[in-house]
UniProtKB/TrEMBL annotation:
InterPro entries: ARM-type_fold, HEAT_URB1, URB1, URB1_C, URB1_N
Domain (URB1 N-terminal) ranges: 112-455
Name of a matching Pfam family: Npa1
Bias (Basic residues): 8-22
Organism field: Lomentospora prolificans
Region (Disordered): 1-50, 826-860
Name listed for the protein in its UniProt record: Ribosome biogenesis protein Urb1
One of the GO biological process terms: maturation of LSU-rRNA from tricistronic rRNA transcript (SSU-rRNA, 5.8S rRNA, LSU-rRNA)
One cellular-component annotation, GO: nucleolus
Domain of life: Eukaryota
Domain URB1 central HEAT repeat: start-end pairs: 645-830
Amino acid sequence: STTYTRNPRPKPRKGMAKRPARGAHGPLESRKRQKLTREPPTSEDVTTSRQLKKLLEFHQDARDARHGLQSFKLLLDAIVANKDNEGELAILSGYLEAVNPVVEGPEAVYVPEIMTMWSYGASVGNDDLLSEVAALLALLLQATSLSLGLLPYGRGICETLLQEKQLKLISKNLSADKDKGFVISPALRLLRELVSYDGGVFSRRVFRAQSWTFAELTRNLDIRFRAEGVEDARKPSVRTNAARFLFACLKYLPSDNKSELLVQKGIMPGLLMRLPDDPPALVHEALDCMTKDVIEDQKIPTTTKSRVFWVRLMERLAGLYSYSHDPEDAEITVADRVHDFLMLTCTSPAAGILSKCNGLYPNSIILDDFSTGDFLWSDMGLEQLSWMDQYASDITVRNSSLLEVALKLRPWASIKQGELLVAIFKAAPEIIHVYFLEQKSFTFDPKLSMTWIGYSSFLFHTMQLPVPEHFGLQGDYASIPPPTSALLASIIPLPLTQNALVRCLEPKWPLVSLFATRLLILALEKLQTVLSMHAEAAAGLKNSPWRYASKKLVNDFCQRLPDLKDIVRWYKSIPDDSILCKATASQLLSLYYKVLPQVALAANFDVSPFLAKTLGSLDKPFEDPRDKGLVLLELENLLEAASLSPGMRWFSKLQGFPVSPFTVLLKLASSGGENESSETLRSILESVATEHQIVLDDAGLGPVFQALEILTKVDPEVSLDGVWSLLDNCVAKCAASPLKYLDLIPEYVGEAHEASAEINISLLTIALVEQLPFAVKSASSADLGTISKFISAFLGSSISAGENKDWIKALTKRMNSTLTAKTTIELPKSTKGAGTSKSKSKKSDEVKSRTSTAAQGKSAETVVISQEHLKGMLHEPFDGTEDNSALTKWANKGIDDILEDDYAAALIRLLGSEHTSIRMEALTNILKLAAKIRASTHSERDQLWLLLSELAESARGHVNTGPVPSAFTAFAIHSLPVLINPLHPLYPKVNKYLTRAPVWPAGKIPMVHDVLHGEPSDDDKYYTELSWLFGFLFDCLQRPGDIGVFHQTRWFEKVFASACNPYMKSGLRMKVFKVLYRATCIEGGSTTLVTRFGVLSWLESLGAGLEEEEERALVKALMERVWETCDQGHVEKWSRGGIVGMMKREREVEVVA
C-alpha cells in the first residue's frame, strides 16, 4: 500500500477567530486522504427474475449498485459453470425479457440499468463500478452464448456495446492508469467476448471502432506480471488479457482486416517480442494463433507476413528454446512448440520469410547470360570456369533475412536449434555456403566434449541433406554448373578442413575418430552423387562446362580430404575389439577406391594383410551374433577395395592360411547361404576369376558352387580339405599361366578337339586334369573319394552351363586313367534343364517353383493358380452398399474432414443408387457442398467447386432416368485427392480437363485419353499416372452399361496394349489384370472381351512373353476365368471351335508340365 503524509495544519494567527469545522460534505472533503483498500461487494442469492431486476435498478449509492452487480455475477458464474442448470437459465431469460427494449433499432439499449451504472461510475470516477460492470458484461455475453434461446439478447447487448456511448466507456476502462489492472482487464475480457460472439459476427465492427477498442493496446501489452515466479493462470495479467483479445481478433477477423491489424505499429512486436517472459499457457496460445490464423491463412499476402516475422523477432523467439517455466506435467514443452513453429516459419514460403531461390546457384548469377552452344566453350578447358572463383567468398543470397536468423542459432549447444538450421539449409540451399563463411564462432578442432559432439552431429545432418534435383532449378539442368565452392560447402562444409580431419583421426580419441570417419563417408557418398549429376547434365555435349566442373570439383575436394595413408594409419591402430570402428573404417577405405580411385591408387596400398586379419577373426567365436555381421561387413568393404586395387595378391598364400585369399573367400561364399553378403562376395569372386581367365564369362563360378552344394547336401559333415587344396593349386596356376593351359587343350582333348568346331571350356577344368595326378599321390583315400565326387559334379554342372560336352567327356576319360577303379569320375546321365548361371537372379529366387539343381536334373515345377486364389488376388467388391447417412453426415463437418475422411466420396457414390429419390437428394447435397467449399478458405476451393459443379451438371440429365454413369462418379472420386494435393503429377491435367467444358459427354470416359496418350507431366511420373488411370478405370466398371462404354470407345484394346510394355513392373500390370477381372464379373463382360477384343488370344501371347513363372500362371488362370464366365456356346459358334481348341491346348500343356 502507498503511504501518504499530511501537511501540518497551520497555527491560527492572533486576532483571528478559529474557523468552524466543516460538515461531512464540506468543500475540504476532497482533500482528505482517500481509502486505498477495495472493499468486496456484498451479495445475495437470486431466486427470481423480478428480484434480479429490482437488484439491478440504478442507485447512486455505490454500495447498493455493487451489491446488485455482485448478486447478478454469482448467478452468471453458476450458469457458466453448469450450462444445463435450467433454473438459473430461466431466471436470466426472464430478466432479459423484462428489460428488453420496447422499440428495437440501432439506438436501442439492452440491459439499460447496467449501462447506466457503468456511465455513472465513469462520471464519478468510481473504479470499482467501472471494473465490475465490464466484468459482468463479459460474463453475461459468455452466458448468453451457451443457449440458443438467449442468443438474440446477446446480439442485442453486443449492438449496444458498439454504440458510441458504450465505446467511450470501454475506452475509458482501457485508458486507466497502468497500476489499475483491475479496471483494464475486465474491459479486455469484454472485448474478447464481443469479438468472438456468435462466431465472430461483430469482429469487423470492433476493428472499425479501433480508436476506442484498441485504445492504449500497445501500452497494455506491456503491463505484465511483475512479481516473482510464474503468473497464476486464474489471475491473468493485463498483458495476458490484451494478448487473448488480439488472438480473438486474428481468429475471427476477415483476412483484409487481419492484414491491416498485423502491420499496425507496435502491436505485433509488443505481443511477440515479450513472449520469453510470459507464462507457458500464453506462449502456446500465441504460437498456435500465429500458426493457424496468420501463417496458414493463404489470403494474407506474404509481404505482410514478412513484416511480422522480421529478423529480430525470429531471434527473440529462438530464445524460447531455453524456456524454463514449463509445468512438470507438461506433455508438450514450450521448447518443443516453438521448435515446430520456427520449423514451419523458416521453411514454408507461406510464412513470408522464405523466398524462392535457385538452389545452389547464387542469386547474382543470371543463367540466361550463358549459352549451351559448344562454340562458346570450345577448347578453353578449366579456364572457362574462372568466373566461379568470384563466388568463393563474395556471395549474395536472396534469403538474407533467413541467413541472419541462421547465424544467430547455436546448433552446437541445442539439438533443436541444429534441426532448425538443417531444415533452413534444406529449404534454402543457397545459404549453406554463406553460413559457413560467416559463422566463425565455433571450429571443428577435436576435443571430446558435448559441445564438439553437438557440432559434429549438426555437420553430419547437414551433409546428409540430399542434393536438390537439378541443383535446385526447375525443369532441367542449366547450361552451366553451380559454383564449385557452393557445391563443395554442401558436400564437405568449410569447418571440415584437412588438418582438422587428420587431427580427428588420432588414436587417442576413438569416439572423435569414429565421428570424423562417418563424416568422411557421407562426404564421399555425396560427392559420388554430385559427379553422377554432372555426368547426366553433360550427356550429349562435347565441350560442356559440366565436364570441366566435375574435374575441378574433384581436385578441390581432394585438397580438403585426408590422404589415404592417414586413413590406413588409423585403421591399423583400431583395437580388435572395436568391431564397429573397424567396419566403419573399412567402408571409408572402400569408398576411396570407388569414388577417388586416383587418390587410392597413388597410395599403393596393399589390402591383403587387412583381409587376412579379418578372415582370421571369422574363425573365432562371437558372443553377440551382431558382431559377426559387422565383421562380415568389414570383409565385404575390404573385398570391394581389393577388387579395385591392382596390387591385391589374390592367389598368393597368406600368412597363417594354408590357401590363398581367393580360396578362403570361395569357401566362405559357398557356406554363406543365399544372403545379401554371400551374393556380393560371389559377385566379387566371379569378377576376379573372369578377369584372370580362370572361368568363362557366361558360366562364371556357377559350376563350382553347384558342385560344392551337391557334396554338402549328400553329406553335410564331409571334409573338403582335399578339394580346397586342389582348387587353390588350380586357380593359382591358371592365374599365373593362362596361355599354358590354352596350349594344353588340344593335347588333353585329343580327337574330340578336331571333331568339334566349338571351343568352349574353362581353364579351371584343364587345370584340374593337370593337377589331379599330383592330388592322387598326396591325398588320402577319403579325400580322393571326395575329390572325385566334386569333379564329377563340377563337370556335369559345366556341361549344363553350356561348356563343350565332347571335350569334357574326353577329359573325363583322361582323368579316370589316373584314378583307381574305386574312385572313378562319372558324368550325370542327364544334364538338361538344370543350368548354372553366373549369379542367381533375385527375381527367380522369389519364384518358389524354380528350385532345380544342375546335378539332379529335375525339371522346373510349374506354378498353378486356382480360381479361388485368383479371386483373392484380383477381386474387389463392387460399390453396391449404399451409405445413405452420407446425405447428412457431411453437413456438420469441416471442409478438410469432408475431403479427407471420404464424406464427399460417399456422397458422390450415391449418384449411382438404384433409387431415384436418393440420387436426387445426392445431387442437391453435392451442389450444397460445392457452395460450401467455394465459400471456405480452402486453398483449392475453386478447383474443387468446379469439379463438383461439373459433376452435378453432367449428372443432372441422368438422375431421373437411372444411375449416373459410373465413369462420372469414378472420375470425380479419383480427382478429389488430386486436386487437394497440388504436387500430384496429375494436378495440371485434371485442372486443364475441368476448364475444357462445363459438362462431361455421356458415353465417354473423362480424361483417359490425356493420360494414356498424352505426355506425362514429368518424365519420371509416367507410371504414376498410369497407376492412377488403371485404378480409375477399375471403378468405372460397375454395371453392364459400363461394358458398353468401354466397347464403344475401344479403351479395352488400348489398356491391354499398355500392359505389353516390357518395362512395366508387375505391380502395375496387376492393376490391368484387375480391370480385366472386374469386366468378367459383370454380366456379358467376358463374352464381349472374347468376341470383340480377342482377349484370350491376347492373354496367350502376353503369357508367352513373360519371364516370371508366377505371372504366366496368373495369365493362364485369367484365361480360365474368362472362358468359364463367357457364353461358351456363342463363343464356340463365333470362333468355329477355335477358342475351344486353344483352351484344350493350354490345359494339355499345363498337365504335361
